Amino acid sequence: METTPAPAPPAAALTEPVGSPDAPVRSGVPEHGRVPKYYTVKAAVEELVEGMAEGSVLPTERELAERFGVARETVRQALRDLLLQGRLRRSGRGTAVAGPKLAQPLSLRSYTEGVRRRGQVPSRTLIGLERRPAGEALGARLEIGAGEAVWHMERVLLADEERVGLESTYVPAARFPGLDTGFDPDSSFYAYLRRQGVRLAEGEERIETLLATPREALLIGTPPALPMLLLNRLSRDADGTPVEHVRSLYRGDRFSFTTALREEP
C-alpha cells in the first residue's frame, strides 16, 4: 500500500475534512504519523463533496488522479471508501454526491412510520408471503410449539423509490389467520395490527453488522461487499405475549439508527 509521511500530502488533502474540530480524533492518522495516500485523497474528495449539491457528479477517476498526482487505483480506493460510507453513490453518469443517511429511531414504530417522519415516501415490494411450520428456535421466540404454523412475509424496503433494505416478518398464523387476504403488503404492518386490535407494548432489538448474502444483495440492489445493518426484533403485546419476530437488513451506506438514553433510577 502506498504511504506518505503526514506532513507531506498535497495541501488539498489536509483541509477541513482532516483537520476540522468535528472530525474523528486525529482524523484517522496513526500514531507513527504515516498516512496511506488513498486516505489523503479521500479527505481531499470529502472537501470537494462538501461544496457540491446532492446528485452532482464528481470528476472522473482519471481527472482526480491528475489533480492529486496519484495513481488511478489510489483514487479508486478512496472513492470505494466514500461509497461504503454513503457519502457517494453510483449513478448512470458516474460517481455522484449522495444525500444524507436515513436516521431511523429505535422505537416500536414501523418502517413506514419512521420514513414518513423523515419526510420521505416509504413503500415496499412483496417478495413472498407463505404459511410454514415454525422451527424450534422461532417457535421458542414466539412462544409457540415447534411445527405450529407461522406466516413468513418478505418485503424489499424502499424510500423515495430507492431500495434500502429487506424485511422478513414472522407471526403466528393462529393469531392472524386472514393475513394473506386482509393485509396490503405495501402498507404498514403495524397499522394492520392496530386494526386487528393488537397494541404493541414492548420489544427487544439486537443490532449487528454483516455482509448480505448474494440473494439479499440482489434483492436490495447492492454489491455483496457493502456492509449491512441487521436488526432482529421481538415485539410483545400488553399481555407480554410475543406478536412478531422481524429480521430487517438495512444498507449501511443509507441508514443510521438513533435512540434516546436516560439514566436508570
UniProtKB/TrEMBL annotation:
Region entry Disordered, spans: 1-31
Biased composition, class Pro residues, residue ranges: 1-10
PROSITE patterns: HTH_GNTR
The HTH gntR-type domain, residue ranges: 35-100
Single GO MF descriptor: DNA binding
Keywords: DNA-binding, Transcription, Transcription regulation
Record-linked SMART domains: HTH_GNTR, UTRA
Record InterPro entries: Bact_HTH_transcr_reg, Chorismate_lyase_/UTRA_dom_sf, Tscrpt_reg_HTH_GntR, UTRA, WH-like_DNA-bd_sf, WH_DNA-bd_sf
Signal peptide region: none
Gene Ontology biological process terms, A to Z: negative regulation of DNA-templated transcription
Protein name: GntR family transcriptional regulator
Organism: Nocardiopsis composta
Lineage: Bacteria, Bacillati, Actinomycetota, Actinomycetes, Streptosporangiales
